[in-house]
Design goal:
single chain; 463 residues; alpha/beta; six-stranded parallel β-sheet; binds uridine-5'-diphosphate-xylopyranose
């Protein structure tokens, strides 16, 4: 079977870039990305490529080449489903905020809605591909819905988790470490795996395409994220100790990372990890372990989250303590709001939690981020806390110029490791701040001695 038409449900951080690259590398396949959010689709179709709903380095070039040729963004979900031979499900699967498994399990309502819609409108056989990160055995639920509510046609379910990291999505998609495809251990399951593998083989070397059963594929995605997050929590769990003893976490990370069995990546101590995946996937893993009665394993993985929460709280407390025990009515500048550099995504960013804590102490927060909008920052805070929206806006000021964000501030916090921060005129920033001027570098981004020689009081993470 050769696929001529693909539909992807969900035009978000995963669906948008992934389908853009698949379309770019397979000009003979028509790829239609659909979404219920018409504003998002309109932004994907915008002539002005700076208006794409997602900021990812290099994405504009790929979209520009493929869009209108074989890449389409649309709100006509039914039509796109019906005409496709292969359907990717790339909708959001947030942590449940209600009912059983609240705060831990994945909320699968959007996935189920997709399955029901596919079943309703399909009139020909389809391969349905799970792209969103899902709890193990979700494929079984999707298959059940499709087989029992569909029009009697054949659905083959595949799991093809996405491993791209935001900020490097295009690069990760073009040159992935691996592509993972899981399918049923039946003849039709294996055939479907091969059909999808062929699409990737247009640009990915075949030895990088790993084929497994469905459950191994689903579980691998959860555990890959758990392992990565565990590394960040492991290094962060040493920062307090370094601060108390005079060891330097950067030196420690460098020393341990040079052991080839450990490796140098993902050992940057920070104010805590964020993003849409790490916390959600670990909570999911913990929930699955608990549901199966594996309490020790659940506690083990949960500790990764607890250390992350502790790291954020500890950082906020350090600021209050250094500012003589009170930040009430003081101005605190935030450089960065996104959960990492090179993205406009703010989901689970440490910035939100730290700002919230400081606003509880009645500090005025003045934020600059190169890519995050003021509206997004406001909405992040409104979602997190019970403070009124008016109170949130009273304590939050946003700036489009970093130098303006620092004026009058008692302290400046680096939350996101944007490269441009390293190039600023820090003397100029110092001159406009209240004295003594503090810097809390949540990413260990700046050169300590250069910053201290200007006159700043500098605090890094774990040094
Ligand atoms: C992650 C996985 O890397 C990716 O494979 C998966 O598909 C989705 O989840 P993402 O969340 O986009 O990707 O970003 P990632 O680069 O993994 O960073 C996650 C968080 O950890 C960020 O807040 C980052 O700043 C933080 N981090 C990362 C550290 O604090 N220190 C590090 O050394 C590395
Ligand atoms: P991710 O990071 O997993 O890509 P996003 O939230 O960025 O998550 O994107 C998910 C997208 O899926 C959103 O744009 C949302 O509007 C869309 N979506 C959710 N449910 C449906 C649905 N039933 N049909 C179409 N689109 C949907």
């Amino acid at each position: 079977m050769i696929i001529k038409s693909i539909c992807c449900i969900g035009a978000g951080y995963v669906g948008g870039p992934t389908m853009s690259v698949i379309a770019h590398e397979n000009p003979h396949i028509k790829v239609t990305v659909v979404d219920v959010n018409s504003d998002r689709i309109a932004s994907w179709n915008s002539d002005d490529l700076t208006k794409l709903p997602i900021f990812e380095p290099g994405l504009d070039v790929i979209v520009h080449k493929a869009r209108g040729r074989n890449l389409f963004f649309s709100t006509d979900i039914d039509q796109a489903i019906d005409e496709a031979e292969m359907i990717f499900i790339s909708v959001n699967t947030p942590t449940k905020t209600y009912g059983a498994g609240k705060g831990m399990a994945a909320d699968l309502q959007y996935i189920e809605l997709c399955a029901r819609q596919i079943a309703k409108v399909s009139t020909s056989d389809k391969i349905v591909v799970e792209k969103s990160t899902l709890p193990v055995k979700t494929a079984e639920a999707i298959k059940d819905i499709l087989d029992n509510t569909g029009n009697g046609i054949h659905f083959e379910i595949l799991s093809n988790p996405e491993f791209l990291a935001e900020g490097t999505a295009v690069q990760d998609l073009i040159d992935p470490d691996r592509v993972l495809i899981g399918g049923a251990e039946t003849k039709s399951g294996q055939e479907a795996i091969d059909v999808l593998a062929k699409i990737y083989a247009s640009w990915v070397p075949e030895h990088k395409i790993i084929k497994t059963n469905l459950w191994s594929s689903e579980l691998s995605k959860l555990t890959a994220n758990a392992f990565l997050a565990q590394r960040v929590s492991s290094i962060n769990a040493l920062t307090e100790l370094c601060e108390a003893t005079g060891a330097n976490i950067t030196e420690v990370a460098n020393a341990i990372g040079s052991d080839s069995r450990i490796g140098p990546k993902f050992l940057n101590a920070s104010v805590g990890f964020g993003g849409s995946c790490f916390q959600k996937d670990i909570l999911n893993l913990v929930y699955i372990c608990k549901s199966l009665g594996f309490h020790q394993a659940a506690d083990y993985w949960e500790q990764v989250i607890l250390i992350n929460n502790h790291q954020r709280t500890r950082f906020a407390n350090q600021i209050v303590k250094a500012l003589y025990g009170t930040v009430a009515d003081k101005k605190i500048a935030f450089f960065g709001w996104a959960f990492k550099k090179n993205t406009n995504d703010t989901r689970e960013s440490a910035a939100i939690y730290i700002a919230d804590k400081l606003m509880d102490e009645q500090a005025h927060i003045q934020v600059y981020d190169p890519k995050v909008t003021a509206l997004q920052m406001q909405s992040d805070l409104n979602h997190l806390n019970s403070r009124s929206e008016t109170k949130n806006s009273k304590y939050l000021t946003t700036h489009t110029d970093p130098y303006a964000a620092a004026v009058g501030a008692h302290a400046l916090i680096i939350i996101t490791e944007w490269d441009e921060f390293k190039t600023y005129d820090w003397q100029k920033i110092y001159n406009t701040m209240s004295k003594p001027a503090f810097i809390f570098d949540g990413r260990n981004l700046l050169n300590r001695s250069a910053i201290e020689s200007i006159g700043f009081t500098y605090t890094g993470v774990g040094q």
